[in-house]
Design goal:
Oligomer: single chain
Distance between the termini: 65 Å
Largest sheet: none
Low-confidence stretches: none
Mean pLDDT: 91
Number of strands: 0
Strand content: under 5%
Radius of gyration: 21 Å
Structural class: mainly alpha
Length: 95
């Protein structure tokens, strides 16, 4: 049996308990950073994007975010809206 200080034991237990949560947070931060690097064309016509909600189209046309990260921080823009924009941008890049 090891004679470790109580503080070391507690810290190790907390680290083990929250490891999954911390890894998830790291993945979310990486995803947000990636969205910040995806530029939205200045001339994009959101009204032409299929499956994008009407509220999202309206807000995006009014605010005109420069990146997907900025778009994701607009109130009322959902993660689904961001996914639809990502798919749309990939399709447009492939044309």
């Amino acid at each position: 049996q090891l004679n470790l200080p109580q503080r070391v034991i507690e810290t190790t237990m907390y680290d083990a308990k929250y490891q999954g949560y911390l890894e998830k947070q790291d993945r979310l931060v990486a995803a947000f950073k990636k969205l910040e690097n995806i530029k939205l064309p200045a001339n994009i016509d959101y009204s032409l994007i299929p499956h994008l909600r009407a509220e999202a189209k309206e807000k995006l046309m009014d605010i005109k975010p420069a990146t997907l990260g900025q778009a994701g921080r607009i109130g009322g823009i959902t993660p689904s809206d961001i996914t639809i924009l990502q798919i749309y941008l990939k399709k447009m890049a492939g044309k």
